[in-house]
Structure formats: C-alpha cells, structure tokens
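Sequence only, no structure available. Ideas?
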Amino acid sequence: MTNIELSDIGFSRDGVSLFKEVTVDLSGSGIIAIVADTEDTAHSLLRMIAGFQSPDSGDVMFGGEKFYESSEESRSMIMRRNSYVFYAGGLVSNLSVLENIMLPLDFRRHLLSEEEKMEKIKNLVSYFELAPEIVNKRPSQLSRTELKLINFVRGYVIEPEVIMIESPFSRVNKNYEMLIENIILESAFKKDIIHLFSQGFESDLIDKSDMILAIKESRVTIFSKAAGTHDEFNFTEFFENKRV
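Reply:
I predicted one. Tokens follow.
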C-alpha cells in the first residue's frame, strides 16, 4: 500500500479557518473517511490530498516525498497513480462516455492494447450494472446516477493505488448505494486500493472505514481501528445532533 501522511495541514477561506494543524499518518488504512458538518469542508481536505488545491500551510507526503514542495514532474507522477471521483460532473462534455473513460487509460496504461483497454472498460461497465451501449452516449445524455457511476468506472479503470471520492452516495439512486458500497469494500480489501472519501452526512461506509477524520470548528479529530478509537465516533453526537 502507498504510504500517505498529512503534515501540519492548514487552510482558510475568506478569513475563516476550515481546518488547521492536521497531522496524521494514513498508511495501512484501506478506507479513510473525511467527514465534516459541511461537505465543502470535507471535500476541501480531500482535494488537497489529491493535489487539486494547495493548503495554506503544511504538506502531503506520498511515500515520504512532500507533494507540494516537489517538482511539477514529481507531482504529475504521483497524481498519475491515483484517481478522483468528483461530486458531480467530471466528464468532458464534447467527448463520448467511451472517450472519457479512455483518456486516463491512454495516459496511464498506454502499454495495454486497444483490445485490453476495451475489455477492462466492458467489464467495469457491467460491474456497475450499466448497459453496454452507455459508452456511446455523451455526458449530457446521462442521468445523474449514470454520470456518477461512469465517474467510478473511469476512476477504477486504471487500477489506481489510491482513489479519492467526493460523497460516494450523493447524486445516486438509492438502489445503487449498496452496489457502490460493496465495490468500494471489495476494491479496498481484496485489491489493496486505498480509498479516501469525503462527505457531510452519516452512512454505513463511515462505520466500515478503518479511519475517520472528523472536522469540527477547524479541528480534526482522528478515530481509527488501529488505535482502538474507531467505535467512539458517533456522527450525530459529534456534530451535535446535525440532521442526517
């Protein structure tokens, strides 16, 4: 597994601190939940780990290498090994679904033959219970659920070391929630893909995670199975009876 560490991460927006002094070793955890009373706060920390948004202070380390202090080439190499599933959108509108999925494959798995790439895509589309012909559509022709699921397909198709997911169950028909959860659990524990996800509401996946980073009033509290504190976390109580 990839070693990921956060070192003294801090970030403010419009003069308001979203989180500060976040220092934690995420190594050895298959599923890590980042939760906050607002999804924007949780997503912001996830985007910093992914390399999409720079922190005001601190750094993220992959395998001991400081991401934000490294060269552009080094950052690019790290990001190529990982995948990201956005809350919404995330696809290029003037490309077909197939072309959108092919983009990361061509870039990160260029040694595969076209037949091998198509086979991987076909299998993942089926895995997410989508119709084969969906790959011929444009993003604008997809439902919200289909759009989110295709983002999952595109995220998993490169067999990433780490996949980061904004609100896994948002904008998805409830009938697919269990499917998504099962795929995440299987990919984390059978394929050794590290999963980090961010959300602002309670879910069973939080309970099944290995570590929880709970952000409240700009402070991050860590609950983990390794430290024996995971079961101490209760979403509603921690966020003072926030409606879920």
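The longest strand covers residues 4-13.
Hope that gets you unstuck.
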